[in-house]
Design a protein that fits this description.
The protein has helices spanning about 10-30, 35-40, 45-65, 70-95, 100-120. It is mainly α and about 130 residues long. Helix 3 packs antiparallel against helix 4 (about 70-95).
């Protein structure tokens, strides 16, 4: 992307590591043995599956960001907004009595904050023009 900021490549590397870690940990939780499932505790299945699937999106976003692709902005906004939406559903479930793990709250704040931060730094949301 013309004029891509200097921070895009280091942040892309972090996003790629984040994506790989998400796929590994989510895969272990979803497809691992009884011990792996027990370690997850009261994970909310919707959030667990969503986060696992988003690991691939994180890698796509990281690749686009690293390459300086114009797609990076849209991917970051999509990931950030989708994660915030699932986080809102999670909060609703938690408030209505669904058992959950508190670490999920922190993870969702981190995930949505990371991607929305990238999206905001890259520019206005999809379909919007800068200034």
């Amino acid at each position: 992307m013309p004029g891509m900021p200097r921070w895009h490549r280091p942040v892309a590397a972090i996003a790629a590591l984040f994506g790989l870690a998400t796929l590994v940990s989510g895969g272990r939780a979803l497809f691992g043995g009884d011990a792996a499932r027990a370690a997850v505790g009261d994970a909310v299945p919707l959030v667990l599956w969503f986060n696992f699937a988003m690991g691939a999106a994180y890698l796509a976003g990281a690749a686009a960001l690293f390459a300086g692709s114009p797609l990076a902005r849209g991917i970051a906004w999509t990931i950030g907004l989708a994660t915030a939406a699932v986080f809102a559903v999670f909060i609703g479930l938690a408030l209505t009595g669904t058992p959950f793990e508190w670490r999920t709250v922190g993870a969702m704040v981190l995930r949505s904050g990371f991607w929305l931060g990238i999206a905001l730094a890259l520019g206005p949301g999809p379909g919007r023009r800068a200034g």
